[in-house]
Design a protein that fits this description.
With 313 residues, the protein is mainly β. The protein has helices at 2-19, 250-261; strands at residues 34-36, 45-56, 60-61, 66-68, 71-77, 84-93, 97-108, 114-120, 126-127, 132-141, 153-169, 176-178, 185-190, 207-208, 218-225, 228-238, 241-245, 266-268, 272-276, 280-285, 290-294, 297-301, 307-311. The chain has two domains: 2-33 and 180-311, no CATH class; 56-169, Jelly Rolls (Sandwich), CATH 2.60.120. The strands form five sheets. Strands 3, 4, 5, 7, 9 and 11 form a six-stranded antiparallel sheet that branches. A six-stranded antiparallel sheet has the order 18-19-20-21-22-23, sandwiched between helices. It has a five-stranded antiparallel sheet with strand order 14-13-15-16-17. The protein starts with a helix and ends with a strand. 28% of the residues are buried.
């Protein structure tokens, strides 16, 4: 008798479920990403300083070393084999774009007996924006020279060729990005006679993370994102275990009910399945709604996600 009354009660609840119309406002969640970009790139690589040092033997500068942009010029006088003088050429990247040194060219228009040795900044090196590096050039009178050249003076040019480092830009004005925080997700359970829908705030609704504390055989399970309902399920307790049905998943819900209750305790129709025993029952409808019924407690979820609990008779 109890089982027959339970099935009749489920059928009545199903009819009410299909006839009930619930008005609600659609929750429209917008994620606004605002970008404010102000990037100003500049290319400015140049020689900024030259100093001479480590003079050996009779070596000397005929003029003070000079430079324009990426060309350094110095005039030396080397008297005897083994004479030498070194130059430190400071190169600065005053722009906002990383630079790469492609080539170093050294020319001596007057004296082929000169030997040039380079160190420090080398071809292939990257010069970062707002940074400086030093190219060291040593000019030496070759020891292999067997006869004195007519002219011991030399006019030497060092030319540097830079290019952008694969278009890599550094030190731009930072981008400003404003993004809504990632919503926090949690699962809670409730039994409420309030009509609840997706987007509703969970504030004011009594919820718990342990469904056994509700004191009900049927109840609702909510997935909450950032304090608002994202989705709901109709749940029931059978043999100490909690089972939940999602709306709009008819085949999954039907399979679960047949497994939990057994085929003998279920009635399967073309558009729905009803299962129940002396303590609990559940319904899944082809077009979306689900319902859980237990111990005079009835909870429904419609295909649009709207949910509500009440007292069954």
């Amino acid at each position: 008798m109890r089982q027959d009354r339970k099935k009749r009660k489920i059928v009545i609840g199903l009819v009410l479920l299909l006839l009930m119309a619930v008005g609600y406002a659609v929750f429209d969640a917008n994620l606004n990403i605002k970008r404010s970009t102000n990037i100003s790139n500049s290319w400015d690589v140049r020689i900024t300083k030259i100093t001479s040092k480590n003079v050996v033997g009779g070596a000397s500068n005929l003029e003070d070393p000079s430079y324009t942009n990426l060309t350094a010029t110095f005039k030396t006088n080397l008297v005897s084999p083994g004479d030498s003088i070194e130059y430190d050429i400071t190169v600065t990247n005053k722009g906002s774009i990383d630079a790469i040194l492609d080539k170093i060219t050294i020319t001596d228009s007057n004296n082929p007996a000169r030997i040039f040795t380079k160190s420090g900044l080398t071809e292939g090196d990257t010069l970062l924006a707002k940074k400086s590096k030093v190219l060291k050039v040593k000019v030496e009178y070759s020891n292999s020279v067997t006869s004195q050249p007519e002219n011991t003076e030399s006019s030497i040019e060092v030319t540097l060729n830079f290019s952008q480092n694969d278009g890599h830009t550094v030190n731009p004005t930072p981008q400003t990005q404003t993004v809504n925080p990632t919503p926090q997700t949690q699962t809670v359970y409730s039994w409420s006679t309030n009509i609840l829908k997706k987007g509703d705030s969970i504030e004011g609704i009594s919820t718990t993370t342990d469904p056994s504390t509700l004191g009900k055989m049927s109840f609702l399970k909510h997935t909450i994102k950032d304090g608002k309902i994202e989705s709901s399920e109709a749940c029931f307790i059978k043999d100490g275990n909690t089972y939940c049905l999602k709306p709009n998943e008819y085949e999954t819900s039907k399979a679960k009910l047949l497994e939990v209750f057994g085929k003998s305790a279920c009635e399967v129709y073309d558009f729905n399945v009803l299962c129940g025993d002396s303590s609990v029952g559940a319904v899944a409808v082809l077009d979306g709604p689900v319902e859980a019924d237990g111990d005079l407690s009835l909870c429904r979820i419609f295909s649009d996600g709207t949910s509500r609990c009440g007292v069954s008779e």
